[in-house]
Amino acid sequence: MDQFKIGKFIAERRKEKNLTQLQLAERLNITDKAISKWERGIAMPDSSIMLELCTILGITVNDLLSGEIITVDNYNKEAENNLIEALRQKEASDKALLKVEIVIGVLSMIILFVPIFIAAFLPMEDWQRFVVMFLGFIPAFIGFFAAMKIEQIAGYYECAVCSHKYVPTFKGISFAMHMGRTRYMKCPKCGNMSWQKKKISKK
Description:
The chain is of the alpha+beta class. It has 3 domains: 3-70, 434 Repressor (Amino-terminal Domain) (Orthogonal Bundle); 90-153; 156-199, no CATH class. Helices cover 63% and strands 10% of the residues. The longest helix is centred in the middle third of the chain and has 47 residues, at 75-121. It is flat, with a radius of gyration of 24 Å. The chain starts with a helix and ends with a strand.
């Protein structure tokens, strides 16, 4: 998707509807700065307001993502191209998230063990040891929670029995035995327990 082309298209349609950036922003309950960013190709409209934006501008979501009015003749082709591009962007985003997950995991381990090491080897009162370990545990726990959330939503898990790819629940992934990014979970499609590998694509 060409953000600059989409931004220019939004601006053209807005002007055709005789709306200022501020008027459009007010109808969408957002700031006019957000509209300006869209029209300059800096950002894209959030999916939560995309349908409402299209209704106001008198276009379809496919028109918006293509940056032009799509004719009946090439509608299917453009819809397919937009879907493929959206999938590519999700895959790239998921890969980046999984790298962030590794960083968060390493930092959380450091944050957890440094206070334990300090409490174990430096002379201090028992209550001070407790406070030091507690102060290390809280941010480490938050970090582990964030890493697990990324592990859940980034990409898919593939059932070893029926090859079904799906996004597990947070509870399911949290309590599953695992080796790296392979987890022993129940497939929601076939109902079998198996060691399921993390996959970035649904292909």
